[in-house]
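Please, structure for the following, as tokens.
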Amino acid sequence: MTFQSLCELLQQSVTPHVASLQAKECGALKHLMQRVLERLMGTAVSVDDDEEEEEEDGGGRPGTTQPRRRGANCTLAALCEWYEHKTRKSSTPGKKRSSADEDEPQRPPIVIIFKDLEAFNPRVLQDFILICSRYVEQLPLMFVFGIATSPSTIQRVLPHSVSSLLCIELFQSLSCTQHLATVIDKVDNARSPKSPQNPEAQ
């Protein structure tokens, strides 16, 4: 519920480009890339592998070539092209912009939320961050890591060679008990006007 609320708030007040991921759907790097692109671009994304190539050439049988309909390429280069198109489209038409106006702060960030950092394959996460580091000039990427244990988890999951590529800031959400107390209070407040013990409700 916390991450759902975070996604909604980010999309309402910061950027429309938000992708939320869980470890169970990102077992390999190609799957992580696929989920990120699909959720940001809102379209099917193809993953290049041997099985798809066999299906495209008809399984090796002569004269049986049956091209598959493919989605967007599963690369950050494809995301760059999409992002450039989206930001250019959303700019004010007919207004001349100076080079200073086209600086980074005016571009909405791309936020990728990793809900359960501890459950992600460290190698997959490391490779993804290393790839993203090559596109920092084209893509204003921001990562949100959901950590259930301790901030030191970052050092365990990401070696210094990878974590040094990130500008890390820590923040803390409400604890589970605080969230539960809030829910209980809301439920109690919702039912109290109808309670027979409440003279104002009679």
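Confidence is low (pLDDT under 50) at residues 50-70, 100-105, 195-202. The two ends are 35 Å apart (CA to CA).
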